[in-house]
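Reopening this ticket.

The earlier resolution said the output was attached, but the attachment link was broken on my side. Pasting everything inline this time so it's all in one place.
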Amino acid sequence: MSFSSESLHKNLKKIFGFNSFKGRQEQIIKNLLEDKDGMVIMPTGGGKSMCYQLPALLSDGLAIVISPLIALMKNQVDAIRTFNEQESIAHVLNSSLSKTQINIVMNDIKSRETKLLYVAPESLIKEEYVEFLRSVKISFFAIDEAHCISEWGHDFRPEYRRLREIIDNIGRRPIIALTATATPKVRYDIQKNLKILEATLFIDSFNRKNLFYDIRPKHDVEKEMIKFIRQHPGKSGIVYCLSRKKVEEVSETLQVNGINALPYHAGLDAKTRVANQDAFIMDDCDVIVATIAFGMGIDKPDIRFVIHHDIPKSLEGYYQETGRAGRDDGEGILVTFYSYKDIEKLEKFLSGKPVSEQEIGRQLIMETISFAETAMCRRKYLLHYFGEDFESENCNNMCDNCRNPKPTFEGKEYVSKLLKAIDISKETFKAKELAKIMVGETNSLINQHLGNITEVFGSGKEKGVEFWHAVIRQTYVKEIITKEIESYGTIKLTETGKDFLKNPHSFMITEDHDYEKTSSGSSIQKGSAMDDILFNMLKKLRKNIAKEKSLPPAIIFQESSLLDMANNYPITLEEMSQIQGVGIGKAKKFGDEFITLIDKYVKENNIERPSEMVIKTIVKKSSNKVNIIQSLDKKLSIEDIARAIGLTSDELIKEIETIVESGTKLDLQYMLDEIIDDYEQEELFDFFKDSVNFSLEEAREEFTEEEYSDEELRIARIQFISKIGN
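Inline output:
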């Protein structure tokens, strides 16, 4: 069946009210109406759905649209029904329907009233549906989100690999496969699996000129997110998180800080999910915090920002999720918080999976690291990944690297040192140990091998641990080193790495941005006070209270807490409880006099408090804290508690220290009685009472390891804080 351009334009205007087609829509529609297979690569917002909706309405028969998500299907059916008087024009057929609803769908199809049927591949597998569809005249098959077919795609679904078999069972008709993200490798995989290698290929440019790409280090991420969202009041945005738990935490944090936000993830009941999605689409909610399931097929053109709380699993996923911003060609800001710890979490998910799946997963993760670490134009990198040429000057400073270029320097010497350390240590260590070895730090594992690595131990001490982590990441991206997934990240030399060791050559290392200096806010160094006068007043007050109560000053508030007060000016109990190392218990016990002093100082000096920086936090629903308190009440040993909650003894003691330093009272007396005599307890308590900074380091200087172990000192210190300070 063929239609002239004039006829297609008339129908586009008559049915959908549009005056013209976008991009290559017209050629794609003509190709399908001529009964030819097509492969369509079109960016989010490019108008993929029109490529099968218009031909379905113009064709004789039923078009079957295969789609991965129920929410996406419902959204599209609702949209197509708004352009037609008959609701029967489009239907969904999936597991959410009752038997009565299924009968209505089938009757409408039999009576030839339905032109579009949206189905999930799982539904098409059912023999009863295959039998029914065999009796119906099919116009064509449209496979939306076709990247789900490919094992190299970011959202691979095994059931999608069976689609050609299912189509052949129903009866072969033209196939149109559509996706917003597909590298050349993924494209070929899709076409090969669907047996449409001869299909006409339609590729639109992946460049979205209106989107600003920004990768930031993951420091104080909640504070940074809230600051960013407050700078864009009333604008619609999405915050993506990898886990449901994180979605809940972030949405609650945004809510308590006055941001109109709602969560969305598969763990919510269907009614809540739909209500939250509708609230976002109808502008009743500014920000939706979601797992990546949210957004596929959501037709909201005015999303102004997309924030990734966690780095995505692949660049295809990143491109699709960020592509939901600025679909009306208006402003679209894309902020991704990058931490290598998140990458390590993704790598852990791969362990235990089949080798082929590990290889694919590792490659996708490596591309993501490379994108995050690169100094080149983000847009150029991204478009090159999808097989499209692009010149950096055409970015128009619409990415962080073009706006604030990262410096690079010759790193051949550093790479050689790293590779030598890996070689001499016989490829024994993971990244975190290697970085420590380079700067001359130890831990228990390094100590075991110290005799064998003397030559390289501390060979890079002129640089810090973070620098060496950056070198490790950048050599990993260039495939000079690799990681053994099964051995949880042990670093190995590749053949390229072994060659580099023998024949070193130029290797440019990228320095990270100094985001504190390039941001619009003031540059406050960690460990320094913005207001030195207030800081000294707070120190004096602490000293007076300590003298009055016969306590070490540090047991009242650590110096880091005073620095935070001098930077953020807390003047309420709630704000004081948000200060680093304070917590509600300590705020109630010692906070009043500090709040009074700060409030008076602020008023007398007409200080405009950085209220946007005083971020309210939610109480984390930590089962660890509850379990620890309950276990201590039962008088269990450190070893038993640690084993029960999956921590080492050292990690458990750190958690207990955090709990008591935030003002919660615990009782470890039974534990102390088992390991230290009464007179020794008295000696330690007297020492802590007279100490200056009340630190473990001071205690270690005073007492030898023969007198007290670190564990004994730490438990005594915890009990002292709890008994005297809390």
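Reporter confirms the inline version is readable. Residues 532-613 form a domain with the DNA polymerase; domain 1 fold (CATH 1.10.150.80). The chain has a mean pLDDT of 84.
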